[in-house]
Amino acid sequence: MIILSLIITLSLSTITFLLFTATRRKPGSPPGSIGLPLIGETLQLIAAYKTENPEPFIDTRVLKYGSVFTTHVFSERTVFTADAESNRFILQNEGRFFESSYPGSIANLVGKHSLLLMRGSLHRRMHSLTMSFANSTIIKDHLLVDIDRLVRLNLDNWTGRIFLMEEAKKITFELTLKQLLSIDPCEWTENLRKEYMLVIEGFFCIPIPFFSLTYRRAIQARKRVTEALHLVVRERRVEREKGVKKNDMLAALFDSDCDDITFSDEEIVDFLVSLLVAGYDTTSTTMTLAVKFLTDTPSALAQLKEEHEEIRTKKGASMALEWDDYKSMPFTQCVVNETLRLSNIISGVFRRAMSDVKIKDYTIPKGSKVFASLRAVHLAQDNFEDARVFNPWRWQKTSDLTNFMPFGGGPRRCPGYELARVALSVFLHHLITRFSWIPVEEDKLVFFPTTRTQKRYPIIVQHRNVVVVE
Fold it and tell me: Of 302, 229, 312, 307, nearest to 272 (Cα)?
């Protein structure tokens, strides 16, 4: 009995010590609160981002602690920065003071060999390889044709009431699969897309299947996605041995086997999964929100229509868009910039301090998780006048992009940033010149687990020159 009492006492003492050491603030580190033991402020963060306010969690803490503060989310003590200068410092010092480090829920779902988690020379090489398939020359000479064709193909099926976000997801998923695997839309791609949606829903959960049904479903869906992609990779290896060559990302990964790096099927699949994340959900949501913002701002929509009608008049309705057409869309680029700034599909990036680092007179302890909030910078009144108002004309007055980082920055800047802009511009062109639309009902933005509209933005579409009635 005495021994049992001693064991219980020692156990309670150990737990108390661990909780105390895990929650106390280290001298010189940013102020803040780490919330409850183990779960920290994760529940407060999730609850906050389910409101209509785009930055409630950070807003309240910036007011209390300043633009750099400490919290505890997704099982780790994390330093948040809501300051443009600090964010640039973090992004530019990748591999020197900071390294990529994401919550376990994301890391488990994208895979340990994903581009998101790669570091050092391997990341530099794979990032460069990805950029080589999404730069302006490749888009101009190769990808623009597919983008235009797939957008048209999807819009051909639009009639009556649609959920714009669902339709946009189909478009971007098909575009991404075409770029990565040379696969055209079919029943297989649609089934894969539905599984992929379940994977993304698990990104911001406590990474313990027992506690989260959403996370458990995401893990199961990820297994089905990887099984499907493994089959494609194996079939393509057989084709390659027979001399069949395709011009896509998978072929480029196979070609890397001729150099000093050989990729296993597992590594290739993880890499493809992460690129699907980058190219699918973010671009489709930006498409949807661009239409919502334009619908809510009739003067902007009218000016955009003028720009695209002029292009269509010159080309004719049956002609595909070319690179010169894309480059003749100045107001479209203002709309794209403002949508990216206001929607902030990527709210921020996670890093880990590789050593003690000074930021804003604070010391970020070695090993600390850091979250650089891009959204907080984009929505700060000090950086943009009327920052939470959709105003594409602001981009006609400024060329200063210092505080504008929708695709991140530094060595990990999104390699598909130009491709995303082109896809959105082509989509807006065909939508505006072919359709008129009205919202079916009020739909609001929510910001967790990712930015989206709550009701998938249902609208009624009709071909131009036809009166739209509810």
Answer: 229
Q: Give the number of other CB atoms < 10 A from CB of residue 217.
A: 16
Q: How far is CA 405 from CA 24, 84, 347, in A?
A: 33, 9, 10
- For residue 23, count other CB atoms closer than 10 A to its CB: 16
Across the strands, what pairs with 460? 161, 438
Rounded mean pLDDT of 404-414?
90
Burial-class residue 340 by CB neighbours within 10 Å (0-12, 13-18, 19+): buried
* d(C-alpha 357, C-alpha 365), whole Å: 7
Which amino acid is residue 410, in one-letter code?
G
Under a CB-based contact definition with an 8 Å cutoff, are residues 370 and 355 in contact?
A: no
The predicted structure's pLDDT at residue 156: 94
Read off the DSSP letter of residue 133.
T
Question: With 60 as the cut, is the pLDDT of residue 452 above it?
Answer: yes
- 310 CA to centre of own chain: 32
Say yes or no to pLDDT of 306 above 60.
yes
Within 10 Å of residue 186's Cβ, how many Cβ atoms? 11
pTM for the full model?
0.87
**If we measure between CA atoms, which residue out of 110, 113, 136, 104 comes closest to residue 326?**
136
CA angle 81, 30, 388 (to 5 degrees): 30
User: Could you give the 3-state DSSP secondary structure of residue 359?
Assistant: strand
The confidence band for 1, taking pLDDT boundaries of 50, 70 and 90, is very low
Whole-angstrom distance, CA of residue 199 vs CA of residue 216: 10
Cα dist. 440→170, 456, 460 in Å?
A: 20, 11, 6
Gyration radius of the chain's alpha carbons: 24
Residue 304 burial (10 A CB sphere; 0-12, 13-18, 19+): buried
pLDDT score at 465: 65
> What is the rounded distance in angstroms from the CA atom of residue 213 to the CA atom of residue 233?
30
